[in-house]
Amino acid sequence: MDQLMAALADPERLKLYARIVLDELPPRHEDSAAARKHLGRLVAAGLVERRPDGSLWADPAVFRRERDRPAEAHPAVPRRLTGFFAQGRLTSIPVRSTVRHELLVHLTGTLFDARRTYTEGEVNEAFRTVHEDTSALRRYCVSDGLLVRERDGSSYRRAAA
Questions:
Q1: Is the dihedral of CA 80, 81, 84, 87 positive or negative?
Q2: Of 47, 100, 150, 152, which sits most exposed with the smallest number of CB within 10 A?
């Protein structure tokens, strides 16, 4: 339920969701960059789906399904970060550096063994299990000191705690 509430927490996203629910969204309104971003978050959270004909539909049963789901749908994800995940995938990378760092600590702790060295391809493959923008996650982890990158870029390892 937290991820649904997090997706609806933005006032503009909430307005867009309401217009979809009320079927008051004019055709091609979602073409603006801001609307596409908000729509992406609503779709990722499972609140909205795009039908084969291109129309948008909001299923009210999603709230009932979430209510009936066990309390901790993502037990491994810290509670503060659950709003950034939908169906086990990271829906967006937090903008606030403190929250992003907390997320990166969680990801490096769960995706990488501290005793092992990884190639860039292996790092990308690990990050791809949760998000498509592997290069951003990799860069953030290196700049935050969570992953150590060899000078020539040949390998990565988890930084010592």
A1: negative
A2: 152
N- to C-terminal Cα separation, the chain: 33
Alpha carbon dihedral 74, 76, 82, 85, in 10-degree steps, equals: -70
Write down the pTM of the prediction: 0.54
Which whole-number Å values give the CA distances from 93 to 40, 49, 56, 117, 158, in the listed order? Answer: 13, 22, 25, 25, 20
Question: pLDDT of 43-75, one tens digit each?
Answer: 767 788 877 777 788 877 777 776 655 444 344
Interacting residues of 56 by C-beta distance below 8 A, sequence separation 6+: 20, 25, 30, 39, 48, 49, 50
